[in-house]
Amino acid sequence: MRAEEAQKELLGDEQTLIRKAKNGDQAAFTRLVKMYQRRVYTLVYRFCRDHDTADELAQETFVKAYTSLGSFREEFKFASWILTIATNLTLNHLKRSKRQVSIDSEPIAAMLADPSPSSDPVKSIVDRELMEKLESEVDKLPLEFKTVFILRVHEELSYEEIARKLGIEIGTVMSRLFRARARLKKALEEYL
Amino acid sequence: MSDIEPNDLESIVNRYLDGVVTDEQLEAYLRGRHESVDFEQIRSFKSRVEKIEEIYRQLGEPEVPDGYWDSFADRVTARLPSTERRSLGNRIADILLPTRWPKAAFGYAGAIASIALVLVVGRSILESGKTRYEPTPSQEVAPTEEPQPTKETAVLPSTKAESEPSTTNRAENEVADKQKPEAKPTEAVRMESADRSKKEAQASIGEVTRREDKEPESVTPKTEATQSTAIETEEVAVTAPMEKREQGDISLNFQGTHPQTVSEDHIVTSSIIRDSARASESVKDLIQKKSPSELLGSSLKPSQRGTSLEMHTTDSNRHFWEYDSWSLERLRELYESRKADSAESTYPSPAYHDLTAILSSIALKSRDTADVDRALQSMDSLFKYNTDIDSARWIERRNILESIRIDAR
Predict the structure, then answer these.
(1) In which residue ranges of chain A is pLDDT below 50?
(2) For residue B293, how many other CB atoms are within 10 A of its CB?
(3) Which of B35, B57, B399, B402 is the best residue to mutate to test the A interface, defined by the most A CB atoms within 10 Å of its own CB?
(4) Is A192 within the bounds of a domain?
(5) Which of A61, A101, A112, B385 is most buried by a 10 A CB count?
(6) For the complex shown, is ipTM > 0.90?
(7) Of A72, A97, A122, which residue is a domain's last?
(8) What Rg do the C-alpha atoms of chain B give, in angstroms?
């Protein structure tokens, strides 16, 4: 009950801050930045894995949010809005600076195949090396696969939400997610 | 050969990974249907993917330099446009006037605002359909010293309704109206008064408002009925006495919004209605020809608060999202074919609603600035003129498009 009340209070606070920020109150906007800076930065970092780039894009996200606050509709969640801005900024940045997405045509059976016997999974899970390897492998995914994977696993969005955010069909989301998962599983086989 | 397409299997495996499809369901599905993949393979796949995703979720926040978070907000603030650039006017404009509205929309809004007429009609008028109140200069200027019915009251078909607001029923009114020799056929009176209103609308309202400023009490009989209903608008107090407002009553105000109507015979009127079913029935009587209701037809209903008429679109919202699964090419073709149809339509009409959905799906797919701008314009108009849409979904969509547009700047 207290948690619910605290949540309501927080949301009420947020609404007030948004209204003030819309009226040009930069102090209120600064508080909003502090509320969301870690989420925005972390999401951006998951895509680019570079601190300087993530820092720049995260700041840019807030600047764009501020200049566009007038068009933000308060019935909508501010978190979703700002994270959508961050996602789009980051994707555009990556599209401009990185590789083309390749279409994965590997047969489905090969993706599901289990070529090597499993090593000790418990040991692997806590292994720092695995974490680094995983981040690296996610980064290597084609941008379209990586985007869907991050939005699904990191942001925990539904297929429908991802489809709407990216303007693609749900089937495409599922297909990309499946292929991202299959690639990661294959790349990390020796650790699992 | 298996009859399962790879995409089917991907979909099933995804659902299995999400826990939507159970072991048993998957096993049953796969049994004898796919040569190259068996249940154990998928189960193993699932277990590994779950581990991968669990680890990914545990990655936590990236490491950042010391003091990074302490100064982050300040660095953002330093990059914000100065307060001067966001002047009061700009901020108000940001709030009130989304920048993507078509210029014409401002014209419409101005026109609408300038000729927003509020003629109060007693329930008896609506129910009898004999006439509607049309103030004339002579009637308006005539001061009434005593709290008795004014000339405005005299043109109403039934003053009985005013003095017995809570007990008068429709049948009684109708009988009383029929007995009045001066009562004119509804349509004839409407057409006649429409002509007058077309020529005098602006002047009349201006005059009424001015006069009320000078002598508000003198033109409104101080009956219990009129006092109780004068809360609606300033014009209410000077145009006509109304029934006594009772608990449970709803008040209808209709304001036409379509540009095609504002230059035509356009009426904004209001009335107290006893229940929403009757209010719906009365909608057609409230509005003249070529008004939005003519195009909206029976979908126009009182809002929940009973203060306005809105189009109910609950049945038609669902299919809008199906456009997302269409190809961009197909959507563009559809848009081209529907564009002409909706040109004749009003903003809150189903056709316009539909066209906006098509535009939004096109914009989401193409991410082209022109498409996004067009969709946002359309959505803003939709939001402005139709408050009864499936708003959460539309707003979410609008914000996604907005973020795309922001990014494209």
Answers:
(1) 99-107, 114-119, 121, 124-125
(2) 23
(3) B399
(4) no
(5) A61
(6) no
(7) A97
(8) 30
